[in-house]
Amino acid sequence: MLRQYFIWLMISLLIGFGFYLLLPYPVADGIPISWGLVATLLFWMLLPFTVRSEKLRRLARLDKFYGKAEEDLHIKYYCLRCGVTYKGKKCPVCKSTNRKAVF
Q: Which among 52, 64, 90, 95 is most buried, taking Cβ atoms within 10 Å?
């Protein structure tokens, strides 16, 4: 995890440095900030949002995969609250999720 963080940090620093070198200073004398600096700051602000959204997308795909796998196994469960045997995530009688697998 820490290694991946440092990789993203180095990539963002290199891209930001590239922006800073490639984009010129404005011609007007009244603006002391370069366009490269502005682009670098925008990139550093937007990069965490894109990385986070990609990680959430991956997590959602895994959740869908494992959720379907659990439903396709057809395991019967015994409700620890009311004693009913059922298939699914919740007990149809008491809506409890306290369960024990029955093989």
A: 90
Question: Whole-model pTM above 0.70?
Answer: no
Question: Are 35 and 25 spatial neighbours (Cβ–Cβ below 8 Å)?
Answer: yes
Amino acid letter, 77: Y
User: Edge-to-edge strands of the sheet including 76-79?
Assistant: 85-87, 76-79, 99-102
Chain centroid, CA 51 distance in Å: 7
Query: pLDDT per residue over 41-86, tens digit each?
Result: 888 888 888 888 888 888 888 766 666 555 556 788 999 999 999 8
Q: Which residue has the tokens 């990139």?
A: 43
